[in-house]
Amino acid sequence: MPEQQNPQDDGASAAAQQGAHAMREEWDKVGAAVRELSRDADELARGWLEANPYATLAVAAGVGYVLGGGLPHIVVRRALGLGSRMAIDMMLARAMTRGGSGPAGE
Question: What percent of the chain clears pLDDT 70, i.e. is strictly above it?
Fold first, then answer.
């Protein structure tokens, strides 16, 4: 005896296909945005490299040295601590020179 299909199953299947199609379109949009962002980052990096070749080389060498384990952990920890304290001091100084106004200029 042939099994009868429920009309609701067909509707659910169509809805699932529509949802999958919509997800695919959105995923394609995300992929296009990522490719565009990648191209922009590449252009920016190349422009920086052409304008500042020695600074780029120095930054790359420094990052490679640190990532390669060239600095002891205590030095990195202290440098990050000092850098974060300096950044906080700078933000507080800016906030004080603005007269304590909020970010929206209240």
Answer: 82
